[in-house]
Amino acid sequence: MSERTLVLIKPDGVRRGLIGDVIGRIERKGLKIVAMDLRTLDAETAKAHYAEHSERPFFGELVEFITGGPLVALVLEGPRAVEAFRALAGLTDPVKSAPGTIRGDHALEIGENVVHGSDSPESAAREIKIFFPDRF
Ligand code: RTP
Ligand code: MG
């Protein structure tokens, strides 16, 4: 059974030249890229995407960071795609992420952890609608 997930290469990843690294890992894993776009988010879209964190103390910083430069939005498809990409990404805290994962190899700070991946098929459906409203 195939599933979809929404992935972001966040502005820190784009700024640091990690687009190719992240896409290479996705392709080597065998996940299929079915949509991809480089864009800069407006605050409204960023707040919708991170709505679950709206009451958290870091919400303002999170919105500022994610709107602070171009990012790459992708939709991936494959068996257990949500879980498969989360495994590639590593943990939210890059210091606790194992080397060999995207965050474990490339980041040190929670606030600048290179990628986003949907945390459930339900979140993926919601997020894909925000980023690619007419595509799926
Ligand atoms: P993401 O949504 O970006 O894929 O990351 P995640 O599921 O691993 O983590 P989540 O709990 O959804 O948090 C979203 C993003 O908020 C930032 N964050 N900062 N300062 C903090 O304590 C804190 N906690 C989370 C991170 O950039 C995280 O990716
Ligand atoms: Mg999350």
Automatic annotation (TrEMBL):
InterPro entries: NDK-like_dom (IPR034907), NDK-like_dom_sf (IPR036850), Nucleoside_diP_kinase (IPR001564), Nucleoside_diP_kinase_AS (IPR023005). SUPFAM superfamilies: Nucleoside diphosphate kinase, NDK. GO terms for molecular function: kinase activity. Keywords: ATP-binding, Cytoplasm, Kinase, Magnesium, Metal-binding, Nucleotide metabolism, Nucleotide-binding, Phosphoprotein, Transferase. It comes from the Bacteria. It catalyses: a ribonucleoside 5'-diphosphate + ATP = a ribonucleoside 5'-triphosphate + ADP; a 2'-deoxyribonucleoside 5'-diphosphate + ATP = a 2'-deoxyribonucleoside 5'-triphosphate + ADP. Its EC number is 2.7.4.6. Residues 2-135 form the Nucleoside diphosphate kinase-like domain. CDD domains: NDPk_I (cd04413). Homotetramer. This is Nucleoside diphosphate kinase. It comes from Microbispora corallina.
